[in-house]
Amino acid sequence: MIRISKKVEYALMALKFISNSEHKLVTAREISDKGNIPYDLLSKILQKLKNENILISNQGTNGGYSMNKRPDEIPLFSLMNVIDGETAIAECLMDNSVKDCCLTDSCSIKNPVTVLQKEVEELFKKKTISDFV
Amino acid sequence: MIRISKKVEYALMALKFISNSEHKLVTAREISDKGNIPYDLLSKILQKLKNENILISNQGTNGGYSMNKRPDEIPLFSLMNVIDGETAIAECLMDNSVKDCCLTDSCSIKNPVTVLQKEVEELFKKKTISDFV
DNA sequence: TGAAATAGGACTATGTTAGTCCACATTTAA
DNA sequence: TTAAATGTGGACTAACATAGTCCTATTTCA
User: Fold this and answer.
1) d(CA B74, nearest CA chain A) in Å
2) CATH number of the domain that B41 lies in?
3) Of A96-105, B12-21, B101-110, where does the model show the most confidence?
4) How many domains, in total, are found in chain B?
5) Structural domain includes residue A1
6) CA pair distance A27, A64, nearest whole angstrom
7) How many whole angstroms separate alpha carbon B126 and alpha carbon B121?
8) Does B1 map to a domain?
């Protein structure tokens, strides 16, 4: 399931916003207002980014977020993984897919789909947040 | 929303199966049985492929499906469009997206997302069914 | 005429995504 | 020391998309 979800869009917008506010803490409220992003949802996203050490957070009055990595150090692929969890181009290629699926075992299209998966991953790994800033 | 859905998987499996049965009509039931694909769902898929002139169908007893195009004439991209409808890597890039979305107008990440969309499309246009047969 | 096949509309079930609500923890300024 | 500003995080709900099912035609052939 390769796809840019709303959450990833929001994350990209937030990272862009924070990146462009060098040396200044940015609050979730600010990003939410400027980007027209639901505040609660955005908060969750920022928290995840903080937990993955992509952002630094400061609580309390005058708190906010700042970058902990350079945009070019953050591949789009890992951002998507952080926000939406593991992704694969087809359900069956995912590790946790225990379901009996056409792609398991000697499935007729497993190999070519796996190849495609690799190619898409490559593309998303080459892209970094700097491409969006 | 770029993704290989179950339906597209089933379509790929079916096309592979039909391609490998040269000069013989293949029934939906056969494909369903061999590929462990829900019959009703598969039928819908085959009908779509027929309506798009990818397959030829013959009704009635001894009927079935046969290829109407060579696998290398069918890009994966158009197959996905036929089966699942128009796809885009982000919801907002879709033509029918009338919703007020962050990516409309002067959205901060619209351009890079559009570029990414093009790149993914390229990849899926270069792939053809012959890569899966 | 009846069986084997495609054609296709309508519906349901399930899962995912997006979004909301609420209570709490931390920090700073007054 | 308290109130306001801010991040933290769990639980819930709403909306939507996908996958799958059911049922009834229609066509063709033996």
Assistant:
1) 15
2) 1.10.10.10
3) B12-21
4) 1
5) no
6) 4
7) 9
8) no
3-state secondary structure at position A52: coil
Which structural domain range is residue A38 located in? 6-132
Cα distance between residue B74 and residue B78, in whole Å: 7
Query: Among residues 55-114 of chain B, which lie with CB inside 8 Å of chain A?
Result: 76, 89-92, 102-103, 107-109, 112-113
Q: Does A16 touch chain B (CB under 8 A)?
A: yes
Contact B10, B41 (CB under 8 A): yes
Q: What is the mean pLDDT of chain B?
A: 89
Average pLDDT, whole number, for chain A? 89
Test B36 with A116 for CB contact under 8 angstroms. no
Confirm whether any atom of chain C, the nucleic acid strand, is less than 7 Å from CB of B60: yes
Give A111-124 pLDDT, tens digit per residue: 899 899 999 999 99
B73 domain-assigned: yes
Angle at the Cα of A23 from the Cα atoms of A22 and A27, rounded to 5 degrees: 85
CB spacing of A113 vs B16 below 8 angstroms: no
B59 touches strand C (CB under 7 A): yes
pLDDT interval class at A34 (50, 70, 90): very high
Q: What is the pLDDT of residues B109-119, one digit of tens each?
A: 888 998 999 99
pLDDT reported for residue B101: 54
Residue A43 belongs to some domain of the structure = yes
